[in-house]
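hey can u check if this looks right to u? its 162 residues, i copy pasted from the old doc so theres a chance i mangled smth
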Amino acid sequence: RSLAAFHRELAQACKAQKLRAPARNTVALRIAGLDPLKATRRREGQDASRSLQGVGGEPPAVTAPLEQVQIDHTVIDLIVVDERDRQPIGRPYLTIAIDVFTRCVLGMVVTLEAPSSVSVGLCLVHVACDKRPWLEGLNIEMEWPMSGKPRLLYLDNAAEFK
């Protein structure tokens, strides 16, 4: 409902109780000062407010590699086409794991399927494994020495992480 409609209802309620109604600007300032998380929770319920909610305050201080790894997805700005008839197949998704301490990419996976627990699992396998055979299979001559088992994973509230 709009600010104008809310202010009209408030003015009517104040009039019914023989109270002076606040000015519209006063109401607007009070609404602007509300905590968005609490306001959404009261107005639309817990599920609607979940996307506004943080993951639990400040993360602990990170002091070593693999102590904290963050995983997330993004759509790659590219359209994959069929090699035979050049018809669009879709846009790929990148799932990536980054070590918070070193800021190095520990693992990744590119898929045409939307992010899921499978793409997260494949990314975690890539985090844990030696990358040399994978790089050799792609004829890439470089080192990627980062691998191991993360101590803590930090994830957003996406469905595939639940």
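The chain has two domains: 3-52, 68-161.
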